[in-house]
Amino acid sequence: MDTSLDHCALIAADSAALADAAEANLGATVEHCPGWTVADLVRHVLHVHWFWGTIVERKLTDEEQVGTAPEPAEADLIEAFRRGARRLVEILRAADPTTPVWTWSSQHDAGFVIRHQVQEAAVHRWDAQHAAGCETPIDPAAAADAVDEFLAFSLPEPGDPNRESQQLLAADLILATTDTGQAWTVRDGAVHGTLTATPGTGDGVRLEATASDLLLWLYRRIDLPASGPDAAAVLERFRALTSSG
């Protein structure tokens, strides 16, 4: 985790930019969220902000305790989203990152929520801007930290469903940022159908791009070329082994 980042400032900025891009474009299609309009996207992120804000504010250790998010009227959607984003940021700023709370990951504390909400806001901000034809890159340091988090918490693990039926990656995949100078090597884990990631580089299929583009590739927003033996097939196998929203 990059402790130099102001996570809450990043969440606030990307949430505001999402609202700005969506405000006059609510009926547009969101390309990478099948069946969604921009209004659906805004409502989704509003619910995400409410859910995680409630988890951290109430220090909940069971997701079933959260309840149902309030539904704003369509005419109030953007303003409700802005208010909800401000609420989330205020809660996260006041939180002790070490506070135990429920999360979907193996890290069960408010610090995980704070870190993950940066990429949630950034990727969906990109979605809203892309729908409006005005997308801008994700902050390099924030994107690199998000790539690191994705590789730490979102790769297939031994307890995942259908793990035994998955094929192997069968090669090392190196992800490298061209702007922040970081790299990770992804390879098959000791248990069939799992993957591990370690910092650093080596031999294998190489995927190099800006940190923003690597994160967007991990979240299936863009395609990127890779180099090395059987590169296209390795990327396809990585896609089959991982999932992302």
List keywords for this structure.
2 domains, four-stranded mixed β-sheet, alpha+beta, Nonspecific Lipid-transfer Protein, Chain A, Four Helix Bundle (Hemerythrin (Met), subunit A), 245 residues
Describe the structure.
This protein has 245 residues and is of the alpha+beta class. It has two domains: 7-136, Four Helix Bundle (Hemerythrin (Met), subunit A); 159-241, SCP2 sterol-binding domain (Nonspecific Lipid-transfer Protein, Chain A, 2-Layer Sandwich), CATH 3.30.1050.10. 45% of the residues lie in helices and 9% in strands. It contains seven helices and four strands. It has helices at 7-22, 38-57, 77-94, 110-132, 140-153, 211-218, 231-241, and strands at 173-177, 183-188, 195-199, 205-209. Strands 3-2-1-4 form a four-stranded mixed beta sheet. Strand 2 and strand 3 form a beta hairpin. Helix 1 packs antiparallel against helix 3. The longest helix has 23 residues, at 110-132. The chain is globular, with a radius of gyration of 18 Å. The two termini are 21 Å apart. The model has no long low-confidence stretch (mean pLDDT 94).
In short:
Helix content is 45%, strand content 9%. The protein has 245 residues and is of the alpha+beta class. The protein folds into two domains: 7-136, Four Helix Bundle (Hemerythrin (Met), subunit A) (Up-down Bundle); 159-241, Nonspecific Lipid-transfer Protein, Chain A.
Topology readout:
Blueprint: H1 7-22, H2 38-57, H3 77-94, H4 110-132, H5 140-153, E1 173-177, E2 183-188, E3 195-199, E4 205-209, H6 211-218, H7 231-241
Parallel strand pairs: 1-4
Antiparallel strand pairs: 1-2, 2-3
